[in-house]
Amino acid sequence: MKSFIKRNKKLVRLVSIITISLAGLIAAALPAEGMFPMSEVHKIDLVKAGLQMDPDDLYNPNGVSLIDALVKIGGCTGSFVSEEGLIITNHHCGFRAVSNASTPEQNYLENGFTAKTKMDEIPAQGYTVRIMESYEDVSDKILAAAAEAKTLSERAKIISKKMRSIAQEANDSEKSIVASVSEMFIGQTYVLFKYRIIKDVRLVYAPPRAIGEFGGETDNWMWPRHTGDFTFMRAYVAKDGSAAEYSKDNVPFKPKRWLKVNANGVKENDFAFIVGYPGRTFRHRPSQFLAYQENFQLPYISGLYGFMIDQLEDISKDDTALQLKYAPYIKGLANTMKNYRGKLLGIRRLNLVEKKVKEEKLLQEFIQQNSELKEKYGTLLTDIETVYGKMFDYAEADLWFSRLRRLSRLAQTLGALSENFDEMSKPESERISPVKRENFIKKTSAAIDLELEKRLMIKMLNDAKKFKNASEIKALKNISDIEGFVAKLASKDFLSEENISKLMKLNLEEAKAQNSEIINFMIELKDQYLALAKELDQIDGSVSALMPKLTEVKKLWKKSSFIPDANSTLRLTYGYIKGYSPKDATWSKPFTTLDGLIDKSLWGNPEYKIPYKLKELYDAKDFGRFYDKDLGSVPVALLYNMDTTGGNSGSPILNAKGELIGVNFDRAYEATINDYAWNESYSRSIGVDIRYCLWVTEKIGDAGHLLTEMGVN
Length: 713
Prior knowledge:
By secondary structure, this protein is of the alpha+beta class. Helices cover 45% and strands 14% of the residues. It contains 26 helices and 19 strands. The strands form two sheets. Strands 2, 3, 4, 5, 6, 7, 8, 9, 10, 11 and 12 form an eleven-stranded antiparallel beta sheet that branches. It has an eight-stranded antiparallel beta sheet with strand order 1-14-13-17-18-19-16-15. A hairpin with a 4-residue loop joins strand 17 (652-655) and strand 18 (660-667). The longest helix is centred in the C-terminal third of the chain and has 42 residues, at 517-558. The N and C termini lie far apart (54 Å).
């Protein structure tokens, strides 16, 4: 570590200053990181930074503007690129749709998919599109409700309930509007967002997997990158314009605005910006939050997901149908695993916990110097430390329960059955949704993958055997033979429809009377889970009450305002096409090319295989108008110093005129730490150059009609 710091004094010094200004490009009061809510965009001098369009044409809450071309699609961002509802997003964002549509005989995932006409476009199963219509600050309503709480635990529940009720009241099915309330600053500010929803989404073009996923996990979160990570979809609505499920009678959606595609590309140091839906960042949290990430969440989940990937690959190694079934699952697990490993490495290399601790000591000194501040905030940092101390006590159990209930259908079935015992103990008139509960249990139990469940459950129960003190899993105390017990849990006899139906009729007293090792395990596990949930509610309530105070006093100390952490709402970030130095004596240029892709394909790594047609076109120098003379090749990917995170996948990269020049899909490995801290020196994001998207679509996909539709001549 000492040698790393010695070699990187400049980088470490910059990382420690998390709230400096963006090289004079924005007002001095604003922090360096820039995931700006659209309501804050007017505070940035984008024209001075390099924008060559009217800022009101970028965002106009009272009229049509560029952001009307943006959509939220699944957990990603996309954008309209034609008046016929054509959407461009990432290949990895459409991966599940392509996988679901594929069969061993018609393998669109491996071979790619091209719809020659709109009639050939196929449903993207499970996908919806959301378009932001409006937003409204509802903080006063929520905080007024929260003021009625008698305990911190109750406060957290009231806030959640009020957020849901405000959103439900704002829903308007006739106008295809769905609403949600997002917390901008914990326990302090809340905004109601209304979205127009589109339910009929169809796959239009997806490149072969060897292009859309080129480099696989070898290159994931890495630069240089040569991945053609893009896919085209289309939004459809009923003839009256309302949201409708898939129907052959539906028509392409007519967006208010769509992006102009710039096929001429971009140069190094050019101004660029991104508008999208970044997921979650945690930059305003205390040092204890980072310590929790470093010591508990990141190592545990990355290790568990690595185990899951190994099992899924082993189970499906000789079965193409299973490989297609598991492909989206493995991809998601692998992406999170490598991201978490990068974050863990970044936290440790940059000593982020230590830097936060030092910052908080300075903050405490600032508080102590003023009698009024001391009276109001004197115990704040100590209170925060106490709350997180309790969180640490329950950390192992909390992470274990959350992953178990998320990853295991068997655990979901056991949990639902155990909860059903309690419901069956109530008078029939007081039972909650018996039909819905019954359908869930039967559907979940029927979907259990026995071989995978056995391996996962053995792993997780053995892990839990090691937990101590407050995190001890009490239901495992009397179970010595884990493998034998799991064999009973995941047996066909126990999971038979007949046995499940029998168990669903039992109340709690009848269930206990069975004197069954499995049933006793289920009940005890459920009881501990519910008790843990109460403790965590209390902790969450305390954090919710303390964080506004931390924000308040930090604003006074820094004499600056803060941008709220990303929370899957629409944000803008801007910067420049720019390389960087990721390590000593190394400079990475901001473009990769087809030449580099071909070079990688010769290395023998199966993740660097390419379609024969791509090599054929390359050898023939059939590059058309997408050849860049300055680069001496077709550009593939580009690098820029913008502030992005998960959810920005699929976000449009726009030039100074607001024209589409690429599609964001990743960050460099050093920038996985973006969720916790951002700095221009090491934070780089990666996008696929629009020229490569167009070249692949036209030359390999034989889908030149899409270029015509987008106005690319």
